[in-house]
Predict the 3D structure of the following.
Amino acid sequence: MAGDVMPDDPEQLRKELERYRLVVTELQGKISTLENEIATAATMAEIPAVVVTQPELRQTLSRLISKIAMILQAEKVLTLLYQADTGHLSVLPPALGITEEQISELLVTSDTGVSGKVFNSGEAIIYNDAINHPDTDKEIISLLRVRNGLCVPLSIQQRDEDERVTGKKTIGVLHVMNKRFEQEFGTDDQRLAEMLGDQAAAVIANAQVFREVQKAKEQLEGAFESISAGVVVVGQAGDIRLMNHAARRMLNFSPDGSLAGKKLADITDSRELLDRFDKALQANGAETASEVTGPGDGRIYQSQFTLMRSAEGEPPSVVAIFNDITEIRQIERMKSTFVSTVSHELRTPLTSIKGFITTLMDDTEEMYDIETRQEFYEIINSECDRLTRLITDLLNVSRIEAGRGIELHLGAVSINEIVASVAENQRAATNKHRIIDAMPDQMPSIVADADKVYQILENIVSNAIRYSPEGGDITITGEDEGETIKLSVSDQGIGIPPEHRDKIFHRFHKVPTDEGDHGAVKGTGIGLYLVQHLARAHGEKAEVWLENSEIGKGSTFSFRLPKEPSVERS
Ligand code: ADP
């Protein structure tokens, strides 16, 4: 056949070749149009309209990028996202046809090159013959080996509350590079790339929204878990919907135990608590508050139960908030004990003073000899001192409570003299104890408030006497520590139980004794609290502490004062 015979005329051969080339080009065009149609249809159908998660974003983008490459017959596709903190356009993986190494060297600023121009104008640029194109960054072009390219903006639509489109925001750019068969990109490619770019932008924006929502959720959960109040949300059927860490502790429920399918009644049998939830459900929205005992930890909670109605008409649930008020209640109890102890402590010396004065007044015939009278006067005098001390202590406590510090009157103080004087005075108060002044002879004198130092030591020694009802030795020792001096008072008394050792310096705290109020050692619970404040008023290095204690064997209290206090002299 003539058609099958190769023409031997070279001119005819050339014409024949040209015809074939035209046919192939036409076929290629048809194939690619067909590919485009299939791919566009598939892409459109697959772009999710809903929010996507981070791993989904990568997958979806990866699919989208492969399609972009196929539709536009490109070898390389690159997505760049604007980073507000650095002002750069950074690569959003995955990128097609570009190595990790090339990506790591890529630095694209948002105000230069093709990317910058497209990002800022929101208009696409076709940059065929990239190395000679006026807008391209030549370094990037040679790094990525770009022949021809097309860059479109990644834009998202901005909408108002009624979902009306109010404008466009560019979040980055999409590059499609090196069309196959050495061809150049044209306006059809641009139109298609813009459409696909919008879809990519929507996917990315969705993922960003998802991340933000996720972050806000995590922050809320973090706050919910860390608040000190216990919070429990229980549904109408008693099902636990939410419960934070503090509430788990209160109910003694494992910190990471699953709540799925759990009812409140499954984790607590506290009738008190279950009833309160029931009542709150029936209270028809009214807030109910009451004090409850934590079934898991036995602490006292101020609770608030509120009915929470759901907007979507779901059955209501109850939100309960529990605030731990154990300490407040304890202080209140201590305060009322304190008031009655103080009244008692005030009345005792007054009764005694009145008794002796009346006796003396009635003694018109001078039945009592001069020594006995003198003894009465001494008792009255020491009872008056006791009253003054108590009142000074009370005034000091109220000064501290009011946030006003303790005023110091600084001067040179001889520690040896103070110890000797406290020891002598306290000896007069007991005949059961030996008060031993075991101080080194020449303790250095310090700058301090002499009255306050006296008060600190007197308080500790008087405690040592009172809390050694069987008598024994009370030994005062001292040590020159360089910048500070340290004094210690040891007794052979009742000792302090370990669980009270931290608390004895708290105001009103007294170690309960078995003997009941009458047999127990009398005290107001403010002595050591004051001692600590009196010492601390002498500067940072001043401190009082319980050195050691053993039940039935005795205790040692120590305090340290600076030789030169870091406080202003008055
Ligand atoms: P109080 O007026 O009750 O003695 P303090 O504040 O001086 O108040 O002491 C607080 C509590 O510390 C006392 O109630 C007592 O239980 C305990 N305490 C203090 N000193 C001693 C001590 N030397 N031995 C045993 N217990 C002590």
Notes: The two ends are 128 Å apart (CA to CA). The first strand starts at residue 74 and ends at 83. The chain has 15 helices and 18 strands.
